[in-house]
Amino acid sequence: MRLILASASPRRLELLQQLGIFPDVVAPADVDETPLPSEVPRVYCTRVTRAKVNVYEAGPADLVLAADTTVALGRRILGKPDDVNEARSFLNLLSGRRHRVITSVALRKGARIWQRDVVTTVRMKRLSEAEIAGYLRTNDWQGKAGGYAIQGPASAFVPWIQGSYSAVMGLPLAETSHLLNTAGYTIWRATS
Length: 192
Prior knowledge:
- This protein is α/β, with parallel strands linked by helices.
- The chain has one domain: Alpha-Beta Complex (Maf protein).
- Strands 1, 2, 3, 4, 5, 6 and 7 form a seven-stranded mixed sheet that branches.
- A hairpin with a 2-residue loop joins strand 3 and strand 4.
- The protein is elongated and about 50 Å long.
């Protein structure tokens, strides 16, 4: 049984490695992540994750693991900013407000797919223009949903979360380990 991580995210790989899981293959899942008209954030995240897990051809015993993380402000999807101006706009929108971070994780074995969505509420403190400008200079916003990463310098902006910290980072570990165990992939192997 091979484990294929359908993601280019170094964070997802690091999180799996915290559980002692080292995928046999790590490769980005090239799918169109454009939201459909009127698509709400959770439906969007679930759909994109399902598309990612179906990208790879795999043997009947192989496992394909994929995830997607979306930042939602109400019904608005804040994806990965295209440039520094969009990142600034996202941070201004999130400043002083609560928002949801939705991470969907899916596991495929043969034709069977298991999928879980994890929703975490995050409160961002009110940000000054100097804080936003300083954070943008770090370039940590690049490639991050909502324009920030909770595990990086932006951790100084987040005084409170309700839910899964690892899901906000990009992979809910409790749910992922449950899916893997359900599919017959033993995480806690005995060593001798």
